[in-house]
From TrEMBL:
PANTHER family with a match to the protein in the record: MYND-TYPE DOMAIN-CONTAINING PROTEIN, OS02G0130600 PROTEIN-RELATED
This protein's name: FAR-17a/AIG1-like protein
Top-level taxon of origin: Eukaryota
Organism expressing this protein natively: Zopfia rhizophila CBS 207.26
Transmembrane segments: 30-52, 72-93, 113-133, 170-192, 212-234
Length: 276
């Protein structure tokens, strides 16, 4: 597949065929709407939790929430879907996404952001249901935990299956490991400053150092495995949709009327792909 070939960065145009902003099956209008709706739901969940805590004498829980990987990942989903909706919407209306006008550094950051939101939700879901789940005492906790520990992976799955994004670069695995290492540091800084462990399995006071190390290594290995699974799910999606069935994308009719599709090795007349 030609999109696996690495081109010199000085010659390559970032996302030249608008893979981050388009879908192989959804028109830009619908992709924009769904991404915006998912972002709205995530932000609504976050601020509803904050409001509930404030009205039930648990404001400290909101302050402490920024030490939890679950919450940080959920914030990441909310913001990613907001920005991805913005990019898709700007592409739909003008034919050129806002992302294409950003500096290359921010474009690369967006690509890395995409990798994190397709990987970390699965880690959160696996760790929560395997190690932390102990029942839901109230309907409110049932809704919030389902949203943050189950629907979060639905968000990730949506971005794996429906956009035209290319397979995750192997270099991004370093980013995943680096962020996990930074979070581990945050967890122990939280203990040093606030005197509590965000997750019991990181408690080196009640658990042996070997057991804590085992959990940490286990999560690292799980992250690497999830990265590989997600990468090759995207490889499979690209092969099935584009190579097997020729679904090279739904594009906007605004702006340029033709766009070179480098991955398919041909030009696509946008009015021929039923774009809206």
């Amino acid at each position: 597949m030609s999109f696996f070939k690495r081109r010199p960065s000085s010659e390559a145009e970032f996302d030249s065929t608008f893979r981050f902003e388009t879908s192989w099956i959804l028109p830009p209008s619908l992709l924009f709407s769904l991404r915006a709706l998912l972002s709205l739901y995530a932000f609504t969940t976050i601020f509803t939790i904050f409001g509930y805590n404030a009205t039930h004498g648990m404001s400290a829980n909101s302050r402490h929430s920024f030490s939890f990987f679950t919450n940080l990942t959920y914030w990441g989903l909310a913001f990613y879907f907001a920005f991805s909706a913005l990019h898709t919407g700007s592409y739909w209306f003008s034919g050129k996404p806002l992302l294409a006008r950003w500096p290359r550094l921010l474009q690369t950051a967006h690509s890395m952001f995409y990798t994190t939101i397709t990987i970390f939700p699965w880690i959160v879901t696996i760790v929560y249901w395997a190690l932390l789940y102990s029942g839901f005492p109230t309907p409110f906790s049932s809704w919030t935990n389902t949203s943050q520990h189950a629907l979060n992976s639905v968000y990730a799955l949506f971005e794996i299956l429906f956009p035209r994004t290319a397979p995750l670069p192997f270099l991004h695995l370093i980013v995943i490991i680096f962020i996990l290492a930074l979070y581990l540091g945050l967890a122990y800084i939280t203990y040093a400053t606030d005197h509590y462990f965000v997750y019991d399995f990181l408690d080196n006071k009640t658990n042996s150092p070997g057991k804590v190390a085992g959990y940490i290594i286990g999560i690292l290995v799980a992250a690497i495995i999830v990265f590989l699974i997600v990468r090759y799910m995207i490889v499979l999606r690209v092969w099935v949709t584009e190579k097997k069935f020729g679904k090279t994308g739904k594009f906007t009719t605004r702006g340029s009327t033709r766009r070179a599709d480098e991955e398919a090795g041909k030009h696509i007349a946008l009015h021929d792909v039923n774009a809206k």
